Amino acid sequence: MLFPKDFLSQGEALNSLLRKIHEGRMTHALLISGEEGLGKWSLAQALAAALLCEDDSPLARPCGKCRACIQMESLLHPDLIVIRKGAPLVPSDVKTSIPVSDIQEMIRRVGLKGYEGTRRVVLVRHAEDMNDSAQNKMLKTLEEPPEETYFLMTCVNADKLLPTIVSRCQLFKMHAWKTDEIVSQLERKGYEHAKAEDAALESGGSPGRALQIAGDEAYWAFRDEILRDFFGCTERSRISEISSRWKDRKDQADALFSALNLYISRMMHASLLESGEAMPLEKLPDPWKSWLSRSAPGDYVRLLDAVSLARKRLMANVNFQIVVEQLIFALLEALDS
Ligand SMILES: [Zn+2]
Question: How far is the CA of 11 from the centre of ligand 1 (A)?
Fold first, then answer.
């Protein structure tokens, strides 16, 4: 299991949150927000374990060893209620959101006497998955929280939550992790250093994303192809040869455009940050280094426009091979100008 201390690089706010838990002053509702893959759900679980741990010394919680901590590892603590899309607490036909019946059932359960202690923890994963009626019901609960019940919620996009829910919660925003922190996390999971570093650089500061791609050979093969074909092409005479390799791969268009957007944004970032702390330039793949040497920060806006135009053309049913040709041409053009 992960411990709250594994997240200390997320900043002083976490320390003060832990102090509150240890001193028994924890706010009744916490909303952990941030991009996908930063570890919001793991942090929520670690804090839930700190709240439910039975160790005699508050400062040692979560101990990772007591019965409560062990039950927390599989999210099976009797005083824990886990709410998430696709795992309804009571049978429901709603599959694409968290239904109001989950919130009603949670309220019923927290109204019962606690099993192990007096304290209850409610974990809500991706709180924005609650549909409108679920959010309204949750709001009422947060307005009059049951005693000794702690709500730990995560969300990617707080704008999709009722502002009144957000204002009832203490907010904790997770930020991108440093590359070397992600590298050591992957190494602890058994990845060799070079692979861990590649995945960390590619992940945009997200340990979850890094872990997901580190062992995914298909991901790296696709990336290498994109590097070779879209960033490695320097001559117009090669465009038709490249586009013919892509012509029957329209089903990968979305993945291709998203990857190009990501890579171009990252290079733009690297070109702006000369020291490149988040993105050491010497560690970029060769085609990107060569791009960076040829381009100015302003070029990247044109490159992103070219990708978005390609998307629009494809949506307007332009043949995919032609879309690819026009895109590579536009990428070369943007760099030449
Ligand atoms: Zn414990």
Answer: 24
Taking CA atoms, 195 is separated from 182, 201, 202, 210, 211, in Å, by 11, 10, 11, 10, 10
Number of domain units in the chain: 3
Q: Residue 219: how many CB atoms within 10 A of its CB?
A: 16
The pTM assigned to this predicted structure is 0.76
* Structure confidence at residue 337 (pLDDT): 64
Q: How far is the CA of 126 from the centre of ligand 1 (A)?
A: 26
- Residue that finishes a domain, picked among 197, 212, 227: 212
CA 314, 253, 249 angle in degrees (round to 5)? 105
- Distance in Å, CA 21 to ligand 1 centroid: 14
Cα 108 to ligand 1 centroid, rounded to whole Å: 27
The alpha carbon of 152 and the centre of ligand 1 are apart by a number of angstroms equal to 18
Query: Is the domain of 118 the same as that of 190?
Result: no
